[in-house]
Design goal:
21% of the residues are buried. It is built from no helices and 8 strands. 0% of the residues lie in helices and 35% in strands.
């Protein structure tokens, strides 16, 4: 949908329920699923292209909630894992020799589900 209004537009058909997305200034949209890797698509639409692959032998189920950093090329994402304690936050880039993701944390911070109690560390 245009910022000025109007009807929504389909940019791409996707293979599941999207969990998180981020849009950079160059018109690339990243989005994730609870199973599989992240995908990217142009703001003009077209076929979605895989940007990351979930490492299933390591227990990763999916890559979720991508977030572009200010340079518009690097991004963060969270891994969903079979064991919640095995999830992590990764730094990756859309291109270049350092395309392999780098872990930033051993596991993502989780908000406490019980009111008034501190989150586990």
């Amino acid at each position: 949908m245009s910022v000025s209004g109007g009807p929504p537009q389909t940019l791409s058909e996707v293979p599941g329920v999207v969990i998180g997305g981020s849009w950079n200034r160059e018109g690339t949209i990243l989005f994730g699923f609870n199973t599989g890797g992240l995908y990217r698509v142009s703001e003009a639409g077209g076929a979605a292209v895989k940007a990351t692959d979930a490492d299933q032998p390591k227990g990763e189920l999916g890559h979720l909630r991508p977030w572009f950093l200010p340079d518009g090329r690097h991004f963060l994402y969270v891994t969903g894992a079979t064991n919640m304690a095995d999830g992590a936050i990764y730094l990756a880039t859309l291109d270049g020799p350092e395309r392999s993701p780098s872990p930033l944390t051993a596991r993502p911070a989780r908000p406490c589900l019980e009111r008034g109690k501190a989150a586990p560390s």
